[in-house]
Structures are given as C-alpha cells and as structure tokens.
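A reminder from the course coordinator: this example appears on the midterm review sheet, so study it carefully.

Given structure:
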C-alpha cells in the first residue's frame, strides 16, 4: 500500500510539470503531452522559444516555482539536427533543423526539459511538425518596366514566408544581356517583405525577364516570376530614369544627367 501511494505521489508530481511555449505557436503543454509546431520547409531551422517555468514547486525552503535549466531535442528523424538552449537562459531557445531533402509529410521528435537543482523531474514532450515545400509565395508588383538605355530599371516583389521558421532566399534574374548578381533576402516566419531588384540594358528592345527565387535552406522551396523590360532610347526616358540614379554614365556627366532628371519629373 505504501509503495502504491508513493508511486501515485511521484506520478502526480511528474504530471504537474509543463512547458510554456512562446514561439512559434504559443501554448502550454503538460509533461508527456504533444507539442504541435505547425509547418516548416525542408532544410529550414525552426526556433522554439519557451519560458523557464515548470509548474512544479521548488524543493527546499523557498517554496517558489522550480525553473527549467535547459531544453533540447533528444530524438530526431534521420538527417535532422538540433541545438539545445543555453543553460539558464530566459527565455529558452532551442533549434530544430529539418533534412534539406525531407519529403512532404508529418514528422515526430522528442523534446526534453531538465532542471538540475530545484526538484522538477526531467520531462519529455512529443514534438509534431509538418514538412511542406510550398511555403514560399511571391508576387511581382511591377511586371512591366520601361527604362532608357543604360538606365536603372527597378522591379519590385512581395515575398511571403508561410513557414513557422524564418528563411533566407536567393533571387536570380535571367533573360537580360550580361551577368546579374544574386540577391539574398531574409524573411522572418509568417511574414512578408517587399524587395527591389534593379537591372538595366544598353541595348534597345523588349526583354522577357525571369526572376527565380530559391530558399537557401533547400532547392525544394522555390518560386518564379516573369516580367517584361522595355528599353527605349529617347531623351525623355533617359532624363526621367536619372531620377532613380545614374547607373552607367561616366562620372563627369552625372551632374548634367541629374539636372535633366529633375526637369523631367516636372513634366
């Protein structure tokens, strides 16, 4: 009978512990429960932010709430990796990184919370996360741009990250003469960002411009946008384009073209 009561007491003590998650999905999970972290893309690194509160009364004279010292992912799918929170940090921040080649689907892991000195029992939580490769959205706000020869032409995008993990993306342009550098952009989780990409050409004509946007985490996460650049060679367009900055003219001519650009904006 005494052994049964002692066991019930221990089980009650364990079940009283919990984890209060702040990000990416605010929730409070009892010990042994399931924590659903939502969606993330292959190769992405998700940050789990949690409070140190345990829900357990601290051992000893203080009588306050015991605090978790550290959390970490202790069981992972093959190809996945993780990073434990720093000891005693508040709030705690642990990281879960998916395999960059992970197929779409639901995956499970185990999260462990430790308390070294205040009496809260080591507690495990079941982690659920869904992998999807369709979490990047993009829209070209300026699909048709007209510019003078040798003048900057600015295309603008909206990038939307629907993942519960922040991610960095690389933008590449094709369809224009010459080589254009890649542009890298970071978009926090569940947010949008407006991005500009400036191009140009010295040759008159109409160009079908393609913008390829790919996650640095995994090539499975990508999007493309098609635009059109019309390059004209008349004085008015040259004057108007200089209001966006001189791109290719010699430095000795910059003051003259800047003045012409100012006059052109008063058309």
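Designed residues:
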């Amino acid at each position: 009978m005494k052994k049964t009561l002692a066991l019930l007491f221990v089980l009650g003590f364990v079940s009283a512990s919990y984890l209060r998650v702040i990000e990416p999905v605010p929730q409070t999970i009892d010990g042994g429960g399931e924590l659903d972290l939502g969606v993330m893309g292959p190769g992405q690194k998700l940050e789990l932010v949690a409070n140190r509160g345990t829900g357990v009364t601290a051992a000893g004279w203080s009588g306050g709430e015991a605090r978790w010292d550290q959390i970490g992912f202790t069981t992972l799918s093959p190809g996945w990796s993780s990073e434990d929170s720093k000891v005693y940090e508040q709030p705690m921040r642990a990281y879960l990184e998916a395999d960059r080649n992970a197929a779409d689907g639901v995956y499970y892991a185990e999260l462990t919370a430790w308390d070294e000195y205040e009496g809260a029992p080591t507690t495990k939580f079941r982690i659920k996360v869904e992998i999807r490769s369709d979490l990047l959205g993009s829209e070209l706000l300026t699909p048709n741009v007209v510019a003078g020869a040798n003048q900057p032409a600015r295309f603008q995008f909206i990038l939307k990250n629907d993942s519960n993990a922040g991610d960095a993306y690389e933008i590449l342009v094709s369809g224009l003469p010459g080589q254009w550098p890649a542009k890298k952009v970071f978009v926090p989780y569940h947010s949008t960002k407006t991005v500009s990409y400036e191009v140009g050409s010295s040759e008159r004509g109409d160009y079908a411009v393609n913008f390829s946007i790919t996650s640095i985490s995994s090539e499975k996460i990508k999007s493309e946008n098609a635009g059109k650049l019309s390059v004209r060679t008349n004085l008015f367009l040259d004057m108007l384009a200089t209001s966006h900055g001189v791109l290719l003219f010699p430095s000795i001519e910059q003051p003259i073209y800047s003045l012409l650009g100012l006059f052109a904006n008063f058309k």
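The domain at 136-233 is CATH 2.60.40.10 (Immunoglobulin-like). The longest strand covers residues 205-215.
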